[in-house]
Write a structure and sequence with these properties.
The chain has 94 residues and is an alpha+beta fold. The protein is built from three helices and four strands, in the order βαββααβ.
Length: 94
């Protein structure tokens, strides 16, 4: 996530706190968040402000998460108003 105002520590913390509530959503196995590690390596994108990794039990849990009320409320009230860009990568284990 890229914040509209990267210096807004309150918005950053609210998003992090809200992401912890995602653990209550059925099928969410783990939630991790953090800041980028600065890097000069061209292959590394360290331009974002908050990284969020959510591990799901299965594909149906991922699908249900998108519309779950806890996630929908956080997205609507905190994430969307505070961010200028979000990138999502859905990755399946081989």
């Amino acid at each position: 996530m890229w914040l509209k105002d990267p210096t807004d520590t309150t918005a950053r913390q609210k998003i992090i706190d809200a992401s912890e509530s995602f653990r209550q959503i059925p099928g969410v196995l783990d939630v991790r968040h953090g800041r980028p590690v600065p890097s000069t390596r061209p292959i590394v994108d360290s331009s974002f402000d908050i990284g969020l990794v959510i591990t799901f039990k299965d594909r149906s849990s991922l699908d249900a998460y998108a519309t779950h009320p806890i996630h929908a409320k956080a997205a609507r009230e905190l994430i969307q108003p505070s961010t200028r860009q979000i990138k999502v990568y859905d990755i399946a284990r081989d």
